Structures are given as structure tokens and as C-alpha cells.
């Protein structure tokens, strides 16, 4: 069996790169399939994905650089668990950055940009109606990223992408799923302000929206039930087939 596993890894290694693993693991974390605090062993990752431990280590280092995984000397890799303090600091940073980005976006937004955001908003509503909470949570974050990418400031957009990824972990750890519809309503109000080129209203609505999201979190240290890691990893691996 051991030789068969090695043969499987040798064949798959030629097909799967560390970047592929980073992309899939990132999606799994942000889609809430891997809970904060979940231990990620090199052996399990190498076995499930059929890749070498060298590629696993490369993927884990990149995930750690993106703040989605934390590496502990002598203990291994774990899906990051943002502290209460870090969570508050992340939302504070987003209020500053997105307040600036929304003004820049309104200055350059055209009819196609507005139409894209309206379609995106419709996707958010469909996800909520279907009670697909993982998809709804991802789409809610993507709404902010879409605005940032269209604002024309690439540096701020990259910073925000990192912050949105990290706040997704915060929402997974401390959030309440029954409040997602409120976020969609606030996105609607924000989009109306954008469409009317009302920068002052848009900045105020954006900051109030982020403050509201933060206020709905139950920010206190708690233990998250870690899923069956091999089962989750196997489902991620099958997505790559």
C-alpha cells in the first residue's frame, strides 16, 4: 500500500503545483469548509493531494504569508484563528481604506461598473434565498473587492483583498449567519449612493456598514469544532479532478 501511495503521489506531483494547492486551500478556508484552528499536517496534505511534502511546505508557507495559515515551530500548521483584538483592528483598517476607495471608485465608475455590481447584488440575494450561507458570505466579501479593483488604485485593492480574506475568517469564527440579509440591504443602499454619484453618502454608508458587521459579531474567545480534516481535504482534492 505504501508503494502504491508513493506511485500515486509521483504521478500527481507532475500535474498539481503548490500554487494549485494554495488556491484550493484558500477557497476552502474562505468558504468555511476548514474551520479556524484546524491542524494541517504535511502527511495528510501530501497523501490526499498526491503531492510531495516539498510542495506541501511551499503551499503552507504561501498560505502563511497570506495570513490564512499560522505556522508554529514544533507544532505544525493551523488554519489561522484571529484574536478578538486582531478582529477589531482588521475592521478599523477596512473602514479607513474602503472610505478612501469608495470615493475613488465614484470618480471613475461608469455604467458598466454599476451594472456589474447590480448583477452581483442579485447573486447575493439568490444565495441568501437558497440558504447557501457559504456562497453568500463569499459574495458579500467579493462585493467590496469588486469596488476596490474598479477604483483604479491597485495597491489599495491588493491590501483590501488581504483584509477581506482575513475578515472572512473573523466572520466564520465570531459571526451570526442570520444577519447576512442585513448586509445585502446595506449593499443596496451603498450602490444607490454610488449610482447617484453621492460620494459623501457613500463614504458614510460604507463605514456604517462595516461598523454594523463588526457590531453583529460575538467577539469573545471561543472554541470552534474542528471538522474531519482528511474528509474535508479529500473533498477539496476531488474538486481538482
Commentary on this structure:
Strands 1-3-2 form a three-stranded antiparallel sheet. It contains eleven helices and three strands; from the N terminus they run H-H-E-H-H-E-E-H-H-H-H-H-H-H. The radius of gyration is 19 Å and the shape is elongated. Helix content is 72%, strand content 4%. The chain folds into two domains: 2-81 and 224-239, Orthogonal Bundle (Arc Repressor Mutant, subunit A), CATH 1.10.10; 84-215, Four Helix Bundle (Hemerythrin (Met), subunit A). Strand 2 and strand 3 form a beta hairpin. The chain has helices spanning 2-13, 18-30, 42-49, 53-65, 84-108, 111-129, 133-150, 154-174, 180-195, 199-215, 229-239; strands at residues 39-40, 69-72, 76-79. The two termini are 22 Å apart. With 241 residues, it is mainly alpha-helical.
Fold topology:
Blueprint: H1 2-13, H2 18-30, E1 39-40, H3 42-49, H4 53-65, E2 69-72, E3 76-79, H5 84-108, H6 111-129, H7 133-150, H8 154-174, H9 180-195, H10 199-215, H11 229-239
Antiparallel strand pairs: 1-3, 2-3
Helix pairs in contact: 2-4, 3-4, 3-11, 5-7, 5-8, 5-10, 6-7, 6-9, 7-8, 7-9, 9-10
Put the structure in a nutshell.
This protein is mainly alpha-helical and 241 residues long.
Attribute tags:
241 residues, mainly alpha, Arc Repressor Mutant, subunit A, Four Helix Bundle (Hemerythrin (Met), subunit A), 2 domains, 3-stranded antiparallel beta sheet, 11 helices, 72% helix, elongated
> What is the helix fraction of residues, given as a range?
over 70%
**What class, by secondary structure content?**
mainly alpha
| The CATH C-level class name of the largest domain | Mainly Alpha
Q: What is the subunit organization of this protein?
A: single chain
Topology, number of strands: 3
Biggest beta sheet attributes: 3 strands, antiparallel
CATH topology title of the largest domain = Four Helix Bundle (Hemerythrin (Met), subunit A)
**In percent, how much strand structure appears in the residues?**
under 5%
What shape does the CA trace take? elongated
Provide mean pLDDT, rounded: 86
Report strand order across the widest sheet: 1-3-2
Report the CATH superfamily of the largest domain.
Answer: GntR ligand-binding domain-like
Low-confidence stretches: 7-14
For the record, the CATH architecture of the largest domain stands as: Up-down Bundle
Amino acid at each position: 500500500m505504501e508503494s502504491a501511495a508513493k506511485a500515486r503521489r509521483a504521478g500527481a506531483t507532475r500535474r498539481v503545483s503548490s500554487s494549485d494547492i494554495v488556491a484550493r486551500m484558500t477557497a476552502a478556508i474562505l468558504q468555511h469548509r476548514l474551520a479556524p484552528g484546524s491542524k494541517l499536517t504535511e502527511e495528510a496534505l501530501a497523501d490526499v493531494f498526491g503531492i510531495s511534502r516539498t510542495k506541501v511546505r511551499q503551499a503552507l508557507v504561501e498560505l502563511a504569508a497570506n495570513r490564512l495559515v499560522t505556522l508554529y515551530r514544533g507544532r505544525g500548521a493551523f488554519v489561522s484563528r484571529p484574536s478578538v483584538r486582531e478582529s477589531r483592528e482588521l475592521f478599523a483598517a477596512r473602514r479607513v481604506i474602503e472610505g478612501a476607495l469608495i470615493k475613488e471608485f465614484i470618480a471613475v465608475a461608469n455604467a458598466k461598473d454599476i451594472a456589474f455590481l447590480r448583477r452581483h447584488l442579485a447573486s447575493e440575494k439568490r444565495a441568501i434565498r437558497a440558504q447557501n450561507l457559504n456562497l453568500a458570505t463569499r459574495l458579500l466579501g467579493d462585493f467590496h473587492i469588486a469596488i476596490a479593483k474598479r477604483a483604479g488604485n491597485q495597491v489599495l485593492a491588493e491590501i483590501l483583498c488581504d483584509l477581506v480574506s482575513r475578515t472572512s475568517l473573523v466572520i466564520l469564527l465570531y459571526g451570526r449567519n442570520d444577519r447576512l440579509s442585513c448586509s445585502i440591504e446595506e449593499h443596496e443602499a451603498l450602490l444607490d449612493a454610488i449610482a447617484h454619484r453621492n460620494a459623501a453618502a457613500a463614504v458614510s454608508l460604507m463605514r456604517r456598514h462595516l461598523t454594523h458587521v463588526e457590531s453583529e459579531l460575538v467577539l469573545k474567545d471561543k472554541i470552534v469544532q474542528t471538522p474531519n480534516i482528511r474528509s474535508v481535504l479529500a473533498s477539496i482534492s476531488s474538486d481538482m479532478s
